[in-house]
Amino acid sequence: MSMFTWLVSVVPHDKGEKLTAAAVKAGCGGGTVVMGRGLAQSNLSAMLGLGETTKDLIYMIIDETQKQAIIDAIVNATRLERPNFGLLFSIDVDAMMRTGTVTANKDKGDMHMEKSRDLISVILNKGYADDAMAAARKAGAGGGTVINARGTAREDDEKFFGVHIVPEKEMLLIVVEHEKKDVVLNAIRELKCLSEPGSGIAFCSGVDDFTLLGKKDA
To answer: What's the CA gap between 75 and 64, in Å, rounded?
Structure first.
């Protein structure tokens, strides 16, 4: 098991501080809040232009021994919010650098155990995240969250790799059941907007502790 965990939460915009405050009280050293946008959960909502909302993504790197206490604190802090208020999951961290010191995970005995869900991360040129989400949804995924980003390649890299560089990017994050991962990835891979070399990448990470935040349905 890893010594550190990357804890990720996705909640409505302006609610991120509420989660970080609860996490800090439970022993977390702090977190980083990134603004993104949530995409519709259904094709009908997408067609009607509904279901797209602004989201806060909260990233926290925590000690594995504190994980359950911090998760419990976040769940407790959001227990009165509406059902499906947000979600939370964790990913093992191999190493962490803090104040110039790198601490590596030395115990990877169960790192390759099969996870029940996977995080699919897709980085592609700006304007195509909705197309990727539509393809993923047809393949069985639910909703997703988009973060605006930018590429870091230099002008010389374009000549060296022969790839057209578009600095503005979008990062699409989708959590799916493990058995749907390959089907969703293949659906995204076949998109026309990703047919050119260098037009995007996708990668997966197994996730633990997947939790829906907010009131529980009776």
So the answer is: 17
